[in-house]
Amino acid sequence: MTNADDPKVEEIAANPQVNVCYGSPSHDDFVSLSSKAEIVKDRKKIEGLWNDHLNDWFPDGPETSDLALIRVDVHEAEYWKHHSRGVKGAVRSLFTKKSEEENHEKITWEEHVAVTS
Question: By its UniProt entry, which Gene3D superfamilies does this protein fall under (predicted)?
């Protein structure tokens, strides 16, 4: 969720290709999602996705006047699981292409059945 007047909304409109990354250094797991984003202003969807943690960013709740969603359609995902090397080892392997004790998988969504909600 975001404010519809946030600069990232303009950035997405100008270039909807985005990358979403997640890293869990304590477990040495890393995920990178190549995606296409779009801004959605669906009040029912916002209310359906609302949870109490969002009150910290949007104190007016789901009734916030300029609230919008960022929808991300994933096209490709990559996953790395590094064993006993920590963040430095994971980053080093990305640049040196060393693969000792590393699991890596790349998934292209066209290879899988699409699920819509």
Answer: Electron Transport, Fmn-binding Protein, Chain A
Write down the CATH superfamily of domain 2-109.
Electron Transport, Fmn-binding Protein; Chain A (2.30.110.10)
Q: Give one DSSP letter per residue of 17-43, joined into a string.
A: EEEEEEEETTTTEEEEEEEEEEEE--H
Please state whether beta strands 102-108 and 67-82 pair in parallel, antiparallel, or not at all (unpaired): antiparallel
pTM above 0.85, yes or no: no
Segment 30-60, tens digit of pLDDT? 889 899 999 999 999 999 999 999 999 999 9
| Domain assignments of the chain as residue spans, ordered by start | 2-109
- Coil vs helix vs strand at 74: strand
At a CB cut-off of 8 Å and minimum separation 6, what does 79 contact?
29, 30, 31, 103, 104, 105, 106, 107
Q: Is 29 exposed, middle or buried (0-12, 13-18, 19+ CB in 10 A)?
A: middle
